[in-house]
Every structure is written in structure tokens, then in C-alpha cells.
Write a structure and sequence with these properties.
The complex is a heterotrimer of chains A (about 325), B (about 150) and C (about 180).
Chain A: H1 5-37, H2 53-63, H3 74-91, H4 109-130, H5 134-165, H6 170-176, H7 194-211, H8 223-226, H9 236-261, H10 275-293, H11 301-329
Chain B: H1 4-26, E1 50-52, H2 68-72, E2 78-84, E3 91-99, H3 108-112, E4 118-120, E5 135-137, H4 138-149
Antiparallel strand pairs in B: 1-4, 2-3, 3-5
Chain C: H1 17-41, H2 45-65, H3 69-94, H4 111-132, H5 146-156, H6 158-183
Helix pairs in contact in C: 1-2, 2-3, 5-6
The chains are: A mainly alpha (about 325), B alpha+beta (about 150), C mainly alpha (about 180).
């Protein structure tokens, strides 16, 4: 692998730009999507079709005072938003955008992504606790129990993919699925994996919605019950960083889903594979995230945990066994 | 296990139904009105603040200064004044002030008027930084309307 | 493929690959030490947990330097991602207003010296061990192999693996018993 300093710098700047643009414009996409679903127009004042809206929002957030209320744990309160943002950006390092665009083809990239995702959870927990606010603490407790519950089925479904590809390297998993959609893990014809892998895909997708604390699983920032959850005491860019972290987590989740199940940069019909197919896939997935958010109301925390413990975990375990059997039998 | 599988099945089905509904709505045209760019037309029964009705030919107010509206108003927001008409009989209106800050748009004044001199306006752009803007001189308003007509 | 271990005797220049690796190694060690000091000295329990998380993160870095990326990732995933969070969770559930200096008033006069001497003894023993041992340099392995880890866990170390699962089973049963008692 080329170890020149320019390569590192190029990827650093590229990843930062990709992350920043996504964090800014997914907010716009979200608002536009919500507006379309509710048959409104959405942001339209700032620039053509409201395209300058993220810039205006960013300027507003940055020019506001970074208020640290009395009685909060100052250091942790200031650090938590950063901790929410950093793992999300770091995750981008191992994502294979195409055959040649990947900052680091790490052997254990799948594991790294999950390790970093759990750091993001720590940010929510510490941020909520440091606020010294009842709503924030309740929200952190919910977020943590939810994330722990959904990490299990997620990891178990990932194991099925790892077993099929025989690697924990995202790049190799993607290469393994090249050559048309019938090679993708979700519809894989080989060994009859299509029988169970679509269930894996659905479980994985539900879990990634839950892991990113998106509606209908946004228990952590349930506006109607908990003001704004762990973000209650945060204003200005502290709030902004949490929001950006949330959107980046969505991007990472979509990238992971696209790589693990949808063949990465592979074209469904074997034509011109490349980074554009990867981008198309992740934006379709992100659109689905937005679509889901504006379709379903928020669930209750009990139902949420029941869904994970009673349905997703048994199903993912059964799935794991069947997949292993299929690999062994054929 | 009772109901476990049916819960999963019915639940998934209802989730898909929900997604399909929002997907359908996504492609339907916008229903909201883009207010500053699109001005709505008011319905005939819209109740704005009251205004005086002018004579269709002369443009002079129909009001005969009987004072019924003033008496009918529960919140005392109408104050009007008239003087003896020059030559003819009856009175001529010289001022008609409406204190819209107190008005609750009950419409008692319009009901009590026997001379077809009062009606609801179609005005809905009512916003100001100054409270005094809502103490309205309806006579002046009528004059302005007459001028606009010509 | 993962790291470049500095094996030269002379200190390399700072702006070479080896030099940067050295700086990063020092950073991870600093993380471990800082985290440990915060964990021990913090007045608030949650800060101590945050210190513990920092310490674990540094430790993951050290594992990475020891050519064991799998262990490093597991350290992050399990210790930072699960253990620290569960401890913090427990603290938040238990007592929102932490009492400062709990148990500091009526402690035994021997506690300080005893703890200190234990620590000193431990440190001395490890130092002696580190200095006496003939360290041998393991050759860098070509690529990391997830299959090798799986084979090792289920053949060479299968007894340990099973014992750990028994420990986990006991922990689950214990938690169930405690929860049942709490309900009655």
C-alpha cells in the first residue's frame, strides 16, 4: 500500500469533506423529505430550494453562545459532543467506497466499526449525565439500554455475513460479492443463502435504525416526553455536533449495510462498477431512513426492548445456525 | 408462543402498509399555501374588523349616526360622532373610531345596524409593532376606498 | 501489515514513519496512565468511569502495538463499549447525587501504607521480571487471519473458552436470582 504522506492527507481532507457535506445536507434532505411526505414544500427561502439552509443553520449555531449551565459537570459536558462526532468520522476510514477508494483496508474493519459505534454510545451517556438534568439522565439510560439490546442481534447478523465471506475485511466482503446482484449477500444464490440472508438484512437494518437513535426508535430524544433528551441542556454548536454525529452515524450505517449486504460498489447488472453505485446505494438507504422516520410514530421503550429480545435476537440466532448449516451442507 | 407469529406477521404487514401510504403521499402535489407568494381569497363569510358601507353613487357613508352599534358593542370599542346635516334633516357622520384592540369580532354592531351601514371587511393582514395602529378611523378608511374606486 | 515495530537501537528521527509510530506509542501509554490516574483520583464516580474508559482505549492502542489488532478491537468493543458503559449505567441508576469522600472518615490507619506497599511491591516485582526476562522478538505475521483466531479458540484454548462461558452462565443465573429476590 502506498504510504506517502499525500495519500494520508488526501484521505483526511476527503473524509472530512464527505462527512461535513453529509452532516450538513442530510439535515436539508431530512427536512425536504419530511415536507414532501407531509405534502409541504419545506425549506425554500435560503437560496434555490433552500439549498443554503445548512449554511444558514451552521452560521446561526456557531454564532450562538456556548452556554454551560450551572451545576453541570463542565469537562464532560464540553467533551461529550466531540466524543459523539469523532467515532463517526473515524469510522469512515475503513469504508470501501470503491475498489480503489478506501483509506485503510484494515483486516478487522467490521469489528472496528462496531467498536467505534459503542464509543458513540458513551458520548450520549456521559453527555446526558453531565447535564445534571432529570430528562437528560432518563434519556441516556434509555439510549444505553436500547443500544445494548440492539447491538446483540446486529453483531449476530454480521457474523452470518462474516461466515459467508470468510473475512472481517469490508473490502474483501465487498469483493466477494462482485458480479451482479445474485452475488450480493442479500440475494446470494450460492449455497442457497438467499433463503435466510434477506432476514439477516432486515434484522440488520432495523438494528441500524435503532443504533442511530432514529425514529421510530428515538427514545433518547423523545420530544414529547423528555424535552430533547440528552441534548436538553445543549445549545449552539454542542447541539450541532450531536446532530452532525447522528447524521454521520446514519451515513456510516448505510455504508455498512451497503457493503455487507448490497455488494458495495458492485453494479446490479455487472455494468461499470464504481463509486457511483456505492453512493447510489447509500443514498437510497439513507432515504429509507428518512422515509421510515416520517412514517412511523415513536414506540414505547418496553415494546422496543421486547422487539429486540423477543423477536430480533431469537431470529438472528436461528439465522446464524441455518447459515452455518447451509455453508457446511453445500 | 400464543400470538407470537401472528404478531410478527400482522406487524410487518402494517409496517409495509404505512410505508406505502407515505410513499404515495410523497409524489402527490403540495397542499400547503405559500402565503407571502400566494395570497388567499377570503370566503364571503370571513369576519374581519368592521368597516363602513358607502352609498354606491355618492360614496358618503350610509350611517345615520343612530348610535345603535355603539350601544350594542359589549366591549365599548366603537366611538362615533355626528353633526346636524346642513340643510336636510338627520345627522352626518364626522368621525367613526374603532378600537380594534378591544374588539372580539362578535358582530353585534353589524347585526344591530338597521341602515346597511356596517359590514365585516375582508382584511386579514393585521400585524403591527404599534398598538395605536389598531385604533382605526373607519371614516378615513371609507374615503380611501372611495378614492381607490375612482 | 498493521504496525511497524521500532526495532532499531538508536532513537529514530521524529519525522520518519518509525518516529511517528514512536510518538503514537507514547500517546497511547500516556492515555493509559492518565486514564488510570483519573479513575483513581476522581471525586465523582462518573468521571472515574470516564477515566477508566480512557485507560481502556489506551490499552487497546498498546494491544495494537503488540501486533494483536483483534484483541485491541475486542478491548474497545467490550471494555470501552460495554463494561464502562454498564458501570456508568449502574452508577447513574444507583445514586444521582454522589457523596464525596465516602468511607474516608473512619478508615483504618493501616489502609494507606498497606495499599502503598502492595502497589510498590507489585511494581518492583514487575520491574524485576521485565528486566530479568530474555525478551525474544516475534516475527511479524503476514496477515491477520480470522480463521486462525477461531481455530485457536475452539481447539488450543477450548477449555478456557468453555470455562469462561460457565462463568458467564453463573453470572446470568446470579443476576436472575438477585432480580427474583428484589421482586419479592
Amino acid at each position: 500500500m502506498d504510504t506517502s504522506i499525500w495519500r494520508a492527507l488526501f484521505y483526511l481532507v476527503g473524509i472530512m469533506a464527505f462527512a461535513g457535506l453529509n452532516a450538513a445536507y442530510l439535515g436539508w434532505c431530512e427536512r425536504k423529505g419530511a415536507a414532501r411526505i407531509q405534502r409541504r414544500i419545506g425549506p425554500c427561502e435560503a437560496g434555490y430550494g433552500g439549498l443554503w439552509q445548512p449554511l444558514a443553520d451552521g452560521l446561526k449555531l456557531m454564532s450562538k453562545q456556548l452556554l454551560v449551565p450551572q451545576g453541570v459537570d463542565g469537562i464532560i459536558f464540553r467533551l461529550a459532543p466531540v466524543l459523539a462526532m469523532v467515532p463517526a468520522i473515524t469510522s469512515m476510514v475503513v469504508i470501501p467506497f470503491s475498489e480503489n477508494i478506501q483509506a485503510r483496508a484494515m483486516e478487522l474493519s467490521v469489528l472496528l466499526l462496531f467498536a467505534l459505534a459503542s464509543l458513540g454510545m458513551l458520548a450520549i451517556l456521559l453527555g446526558g449525565w453531565a447535564s445534571g438534568n432529570k430528562y437528560a439522565i432518563i434519556s441516556s439510560a434509555r439510549a444505553v439500554s436500547q443500544n445494548l439490546a440492539y447491538e446483540i442481534p446486529m453483531l449476530v447478523t454480521v457474523i452470518t455475513v462474516v461466515m459467508i465471506s470468510g473475512s472481517m475485511n469490508l473490502r474483501e466482503i465487498a469483493i466477494d460479492q462482485q458480479g451482479g446482484f445474485w452475488h450480493w449477500n442479500i440475494f446470494r444464490l450460492e449455497n442457497g443463502h438467499f433463503l435466510t440472508m434477506w432476514i439477516s438484512f432486515i434484522i440488520f437494518f432495523i438494528c441500524s435504525v435503532a443504533e442511530t437513535n432514529r425514529a421510530p426508535f428515538d427514545m433518547a430524544e423523545a420530544e414529547s416526553e423528555l424535552v430533547a433528551g440528552f441534548m436538553t441542556e445543549y445549545g449552539s454548536m454542542g447541539f450541532g455536533l450531536f446532530m452532525m454525529g447522528e447524521y454521520l452515524n446514519i451515513v456510516v450505517g448505510a455504508c455498512l449495510t451497503a457493503t455487507l449486504f448490497l455488494g458495495g460498489w458492485d453494479c446490479p447488472f455487472g455494468l461499470t462498477p464504481g463509486v457511483w453505485w456505492f453512493l447510489i446505494k447509500i443514498y437510497v438507504l439513507i432515504f429509507t431512513f428518512i422515509w421510515i422516520r416520517w412514517t412511523y410514530p415513536r414506540t414505547q421503550i418496553y415494546r422496543l426492548l421486547n422487539l429486540s429480545w423477543k423477536i430480533l435476537i431469537p431470529f438472528s440466532l436461528a439465522n446464524l445456525l441455518i447459515t452455518a448449516a447451509l455453508i457446511k451442507v453445500f | 408462543m400464543n400470538g407470537y407469529w401472528s404478531d410478527i406477521f400482522i406487524g410487518s404487514k402494517s409496517l409495509v402498509t404505512g410505508l406505502l401510504i407515505t410513499a404515495r403521499e410523497f409524489f402527490k402535489p403540495v397542499v400547503t399555501e405559500q402565503y407571502p407568494y400566494e395570497v388567499p381569497t377570503m370566503t364571503p363569510l370571513f369576519r374581519g374588523h368592521i368597516e363602513l358601507i358607502g352609498n354606491e353613487e355618492t360614496g358618503a357613508p350610509n350611517c345615520v349616526v343612530c348610535g345603535m352599534c355603539q350601544r350594542a358593542c359589549p366591549s365599548e370599542c366603537i366611538s362615533l360622532d355626528g353633526k346636524k346635516a346642513e340643510g336636510g334633516k338627520g345627522k352626518v357622520l364626522i368621525s367613526y373610531m374603532l378600537d380594534f384592540t378591544k374588539c372580539s369580532l362578535c358582530g353585534s354592531c353589524v347585526e344591530s345596524c338597521n341602515f346597511n351601514a356596517l359590514r365585516f371587511s375582508k382584511e386579514y393582514n393585521l400585524a403591527s409593532f404599534d398598538k395605536n395602529d389598531f385604533i382605526m378611523d373607519l371614516l378615513k378608511r371609507l374615503e380611501d376606498q372611495n378614492r381607490c374606486k375612482q | 501489515m498493521q504496525t511497524i515495530v521500532c526495532q532499531t537501537t538508536a532513537a529514530p528521527a521524529l519525522f520518519t514513519a518509525e518516529g511517528m509510530v514512536g510518538v503514537i506509542f507514547l500517546l497511547t501509554v500516556t492515555l493509559v496512565l492518565t486514564g488510570a490516574v483519573i479513575a483513581v483520583n476522581a471525586q465523582r464516580l462518573v468521571r472515574a468511569v470516564a477515566g477508566l474508559a480512557i485507560c481502556f482505549t489506551g490499552l487497546a492502542g498498546v494491544y495494537y502495538f503488540l501486533l494483536s489488532p483483534f484483541l485491541a478491537m475486542m478491548q474497545l468493543l467490550i471494555y470501552v463499549g460495554a463494561v464502562s458503559i454498564l458501570i456508568a449505567f449502574g452508577i447513574m441508576m444507583a445514586d444521582p447525587e454522589e457523596k464525596r469522600g465516602v468511607g474516608m472518615k473512619n478508615r483504618s490507619p493501616l489502609a494507606g501504607p498497606l495499599a502503598f506497599s502492595t502497589g510498590a511491591l507489585m511494581f518492583a516485582a514487575l520491574t524485576v521480571l521485565g528486566l530479568k526476562t530474555q525478551w525474544q522478538v516475534f516475527p511479524r505475521q503476514g496477515t491477520f487471519d480470522i480463521k486462525a483466531v477461531g481455530m485457536a479458540l475452539l481447539t488450543t484454548h477450548s477449555l478456557v473458552f468453555e470455562l469462561i462461558s460457565i462463568v458467564l452462565l453463573l453470572a446470568i443465573i446470579g443476576a436472575l436470582v438477585l432480580a427474583q429476590r428484589g421482586r419479592n
